[in-house]
Amino acid sequence: MASGTAIAAAMLSVSLDIGDKVGSEMRSLGANIVITPVADSLPVEIGGIDYRPVSEGAYIAESSLGKLKQIFWRNNIAAFAPFLYVPIRVLSPQTPDQSRDPRQAGAGREGAGAAAAKDSTMLVGTWFDHSFMTAGGERFDTGIRPLNPAWKLEGTWIDDSGSAEAGNFCLIGKSLAETLQLEPGSIVTLEAENNGTHELPLSCAVKGILTTGGSEDSQIFTSLALAQSLAGLEGKVRKVQASALIKPEDERSRRDPKAMTPAEYERWYCSPYISSILLQIGEALPGTASRQIQPVAETQGKVLGKIEFLMGILVVLALAAAALSISSIASLRVLKRRQEISLMKAIGAQDRLVASLFLAEAGLQGLVGGMLGFGGGLLLARILEHLVFGSQLIVNWMLLPLILLTGLAVSFLGTWGPLKLAMSYEPAAVLRGE
Are 222 and 123 in contact (CB under 8 A)? Predict the structure, then answer.
């Protein structure tokens, strides 16, 4: 009993926060939701990047993005970041040595810079480390750093927290930096198709070299304010990416909300399915369309579903093994006491009195086994949390009564068969030795 309930307690303890833990681990894959304007022109995307001229298509107001932290599942929105894409040309890249020596800088413009001017790339304006106060008065830190924890940077991130340090700084994707032979401290001169409100050409200091393993390695990242100024689109963004902790899909999540009853709709709406979160985002940001980034959302949901299914199977098998062991032991006790049971019944004991003795014994072993199992389960759960997630288990004492009730149920279930055998004894036949 202690072994069975220990496994049950361990699995239940881990499963209570495994969604958040696995979700946090899966966040290294990046965003799982993308938000775009509804009234948008046909996108021209390659590798998830919008290559339309900045003058085409609709936009989202930057000032409205704080509403993402006002939806019902706002606490499941772990991070988000806006993006504005500006087609540019790199005119004259300079290494740190050239930027300090005017003669070398001039040679760089005539040589490598002239060749680079023929190559176009994409300037991506975004938030790096952006903080704002939510409607509840809490500070929320977001941006591409918390949104994409697996991205690697050689150098330093741009400070766009509201200070003047953001300036004309940029991050260069690794492959583009290798092509232009740039490193942290280099200076690049950028020219945009639409001059916007910023004086051009623009000299930009490279703060770091960004490695993502995706199309971002061939792009240039800068602060959202600077990209908006270049494009003449102050306060506007092209799209938003968000990372949300979600619940694995099941039959309820796949149903059409319009076909649900009010009670079913409320249960669906109050569950962190990707579909319900997308609906709530649409309600908070009218005029936008939200969709899941399929590979990330599906992978997260499938991993969570398989882990929870495996843990459920382990719990069922452990408790079934405990019930079978108790049934075997109880059967042996009944066989050893058949003479005593028959004698009690012969002198007038009712079946319920005999049954109460066995049930009391089963209840005692269920409670004691459950207590031992709860303690052993917490120890096992702590070990699992440390080995798998590298974190400390938070003890949930609400599991104690559940484990005790489980212990009682398994003990009574294992005793039920032997108890029926004891009730079937005929005192005369047993006492005669038949």
Answer: yes
Please determine, for residue 211, whether its predicted confidence score (pLDDT) is greater than 70. Answer: yes
> Could you tell me which of 71, 56, 189 has the C-alpha nearest to residue 121?
189
Contact (Cβ atoms closer than 8 angstroms) between residue 424 and residue 351: no
DSSP 260: S
Beta bridge partners, 171, equal: 208, 221
Q: Which amino acid is at 50?
A: D
pTM of full prediction above 0.85: no
| pLDDT attached to residue 207 | 92
Count of C-beta atoms within a 10 Å radius of residue 245: 21
What is the C-alpha to C-alpha distance for residues 60 and 275, in angstroms, rounded to an integer? 21
Q: Residue 111, exposed/middle/buried by CB under 10 A (0-12, 13-18, 19+)?
A: exposed
Strands (E), 224-272: 236-237, 239-244
User: Does residue 115 carry a pLDDT above 70?
Assistant: no
The tokens for 255 are 């149903």
The single-letter code of the amino acid at 325 is S
* 8 Å CB contact between 196 and 120: no
| Mean pLDDT (whole number) for 165-187 | 85
Rg (CA), the chain: 33
Torsion of CA 196, 217, 47, 29, to 10 degrees: -120
| 322 CB burial (10 A radius; 0-12, 13-18, 19+) | buried
Per-residue tokens: 197 = 């409100």
| pLDDT given at position 135 | 80
Q: SS3 for 146?
A: helix
CB-based burial label for 156 (10 Å; 0-12, 13-18, 19+)? exposed
For CA atoms 235, 237, 243, 248, give the dihedral sign.
positive
